[in-house]
Amino acid sequence: MNKKWTTLAFASTLILVMLLNFITSDIAISMTERRKLKTFPELTTETLISGDFFEDFEKYAMDQMVYRNPLRNLKALIEYGVFQKYDNNSYFITGGHAFKMDYDKKLQEYKNAAAQIEKVYDRYLTGLKVYHAIIPDKNYFIRNDNKYLFNDYDAMIDTLNAGIIHSTYIDLFGALTLDDYYRSDLHWKQDHLGGVMQALESAMGFETSFDASRYTHETLSPFYGAYHGGLSGLVGADSITYLTNDWVKGAIALHYTENGEITAKDVYDIDAFGGIDGYDLFLSGPTPIVEIQNPANTSGKSLVIFRDSFASSIAPLLLEEYSTVTLVDLRYVSMDLIGEYVDFDCTVTALFITTA
Amino acid sequence: MVFSSITFIYYFLPLVLVGYFLTPDRLKNVTLLMASLVFYFVGEPVYIILLLGSVALNYIAGLGIEKHRGSLRAKQILASAIAFDILMLAIFKYFNFFAENMTAALSLDIRWVKIALPIGISFYTFQIMSYVIDVFRGEAKAQKNIANLALYVSLFPQLIAGPIVRYKTIEEELSNRVHSTENFAYGVRRFVIGLLKKVIIANPLGALWGLAKFAEQPSVLFYWLGAVGFMLQIYFDFSAYSDMGIGLGRMFGFHFLENFNYPYIARSITEFWQRWHMSLGRWFRDYLYIPLGGNRTSKLKWYRNIGIVWLATGIWHGAAWNFILWGAMFGIILILEKLFLLQMLKKVPGWIGHLYTLIVVLFGFVLFNSSSFTEAADVIQGMLGLLEIPLVSDESIYHLMSNKVLLIIAIVFSTPIVNFKLRHSAIDKLSRFEPVAIVLILAAVTGFLIDSSFNPFLYFRF
Questions:
Q1: pLDDT given at position B425
Q2: CB within 8 Å: A18 and B401
Q3: Predicted ipTM?
Q4: Is B317 among the catalytic positions?
């Protein structure tokens, strides 16, 4: 009797899944994995003979498998629950937060980063007020957990600070805790940046003082952070709370694209939140140069932030102090071209933001 | 196409099963042949011609041998067929290796055209050679139906990675086999266990070698972890394919012989090779070792025969010097065992024999898995603490601890301990849950398979 049930269970599972795979519509984007899923491969004589069709079909079949997310979740549960593995796809959970294993950073990378900052200084910033801040990587806050592997943060910070000579260092490490970061993502939360704003105000001599109560707190959800997919949903989705007010709403973000075009957008790109990376809500995601103009601030003060993705969410909070905040992403723009888009006159203050 | 793929499990197999069992009995072989050719075409769209050509030639040879049985003509036909089969293997598997070494040895300035290795050529060539030899020896009748012979050679459950099925093993079943729920359920069990072994045990174990090889913090422990990981991986990987092959064969009514019998519990290398890839061992025994005279000859020739068989075994595994050296190493050890080691091992406690076997096999697999002598030497030196590296590193401890349960499970299930410990009554009780377990294992395997396509877009950082 049992043999019949075994046969039935096996055959019916295979046939049922096959039928479900045939009848269910393909999904274009996996929001939880933040990527486009494979579409049905091109079927031609050439792709058939070369074998490319079958290779691509397997990738398509994996991506479009019914119950893909629950099955990936089951895999992660087996890795953690049965095999007691410390990580899943190099991602791990501790204290309810998701982390990505990162322990092989070379100090040379930080020497290079510092050298690049010095080159920018020599080229554009001589005589201006220049500051640099290091944003602690999320893993920094659990670095004493002996179970996992970590970079040598002290050495990384020392290397950066030793290499950056013409700049005043702003220490943000005391202004942040793990709770100031999203559970499923590497980034900090904009609505938790009070301490960071205070540190900047104090070091850079702001005339204004950040007060979160002057902003409306808007929340969008679900936000599937960059680490959510790696943990196959074992850590829940976040929500993004962003701070806005009339100043921020009245500001215009001018995006300078690679082909020289300028696109004007809102500071908060609500449509981008629905894209692959919800964090693109802030200034529409990665762009070489963005200039935020705040007509409500008539101080004429200008801030240029040499940044990575973290700066996108703090920039709107700086509009109270500056008429213009320009964000330059050195990963996407050549140093020679910066001067064509950014005017480094005496009203400019420069802030380098890096992550370690 | 591999068994452990979504395409196979959820597209090919259900379609073939439905098609096969809806087909009338007299046409079942045709359905299975078509399925097998599609299976091969998916992996080798072009070289399927080579497979079919080999079938056609050996089919004619089989008929010719039977027609001229007992005469010189039969011998000539056999020799021609074998020469053709070996030539195909030589061209498609060994030409690149031969050309590269000749070019290097003679300092020639020739750019050879690389020949791609057709999938499964080593397996199906040995199978078809067994057919013509069995026919010549009178151990099997020549197959009159070319479709049946093509089915024997291309039968998808064993086409790509064995087990090597001798013609006479399934000669009867090619034309007359039993389809039953019992057979099917047994096949399902073996297939699903094989999937579990391959996808959930072997694949993660395989990652350890790569981690050790490219470690940020290399250490003696890491080299051992990588080597042990590979040793367990290759067992679970290869035996899983055999399980799946045997299981799939049984679903269609074929009884293939076992290919593995807990090789890591062997107490000597002689015993290890009686438990590891048994179908290859049987093939070499029946078609090379015994025809050479086996052990019924002078001691010198006996050792020569062992040497030839093990060089051939090494070469069969791959066209590279490390495989040849690997085969030669086992040949020498087996000769030493015949000379005196086996006698010595009988006099010492059993655990010494186990330890000796495991260590030899472990270092053998390091050689087997290395892409060059330099890599093998590097790993072996690392394991022996001859490199300037620490005994342990944080990275190696992390991966050891993170994989400890997997390693323990793999070690335990590479032995028959669980089977011995579970009483029959317990097995009967557990088997009640088999249908549920089958579905759960399929779900878990699918989860592991599709998660390998995880390729996240991460917001770039400085």
A1: 66
A2: no
A3: 0.86
A4: yes
